[in-house]
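Morning run. Coffee first, then this:
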Amino acid sequence: MQVFRRSDRSPLAEWWRTVDKGLIAAALILLGAGMVLSLAAGPAAASKLKLGDPFYFVYRQAAFAIVASGILVGTSLLSPMWARRVCGILFIVCFLMMAGLLVFGHEAKGAKRWFRLWGTTFQPSEIIKPALVVMVAWLLAQRERFPAGPWAPIAFAFYAVTVGLLLLQPDVGQAALLTAAFVIVFFVTGLPWLWASGFVIGGSLLGTGLYFLLPHVRFRVNSFLNPDANDTYQIDMARAAIERGGFFGVGPGEGQVKRVLPDAHTDFIYSVAGEEFGLMLLALLTLMFAVISIKGVMDASRQKDTYQRAAGVGLYAIFGLQAAVNMSVNLSLIPPKGMTLPLVSSGGSSLLGSALTLGLALALTRKQPESSLPHLRHA
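And here it is:
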């Protein structure tokens, strides 16, 4: 079905012809799955928190899913230049907010990562991640135009101060995810051996230091390496729930893991899906994440502009890596880390940040409009 006439050159028509509609469809499927799973896990979470309305998290998920859909489509309409400008503004605002967290942030589970706003919480690190990826990609791409400029040190400084604030919260998982994205962007734009060696040595030293300085990091690593000597209740229950679900699941609403795990509607939503809907839903979710990440990286790698290529690869990579971390924790493949499943887990900041990440990636990897093709310019 033809939505717009070929003669229609409006911005919306050009967007529809150039955006990857398959990736948008995959993202909407994940949002839909998140709504279904909020119905499964939301009432149990509301009961544990003694909220008056059992459907509190369902209504909240629906509201944020609508806003996230708007952000996804709205940001995908941006030109590469405006994507960079928007990310510059978002980075400044979120950086200041993250600095303010150290004084005014809401503390939970020993970390200050959230602001309490209008009865809900907001986590600025979810927004600063895609903004930083785009900014760093643009800065490193400038080395082609202005080789004498200190673009790599400037990009590294932006990355370092952001990761520094994350570690002060502390949020080691997000810091590691952002580090991986930064290295990927640097690699795509051309990573000198000196910088590569520095990342390997510096990363090893930092990881070792965090292991000895932060007790919760040491506990999680030790629990993973030696589960018999440590408390691994949550990941054991998550893995057991997936095993119990089998191929078809125990049925909607019949799962038990959501009643015993405190973060079943966020960090362990993948286990809830496996227990109640079985491997069929887990396979669908995994396929959607694989399609978005792999096809997105392939689309981005074909971009001629270095900035668009590096930013696109970095954004799709950070989206896929976060999904992989969440699923791996649920399957007991890596040490536990409180990280949401993009577009699926309950959580407003996570939904908005994931939508922003994909929207920016779609904007930077859109096809060139037909009117800009050489054989049509003089038609």
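The first strand starts at residue 106 and ends at 108. Good start to the day.
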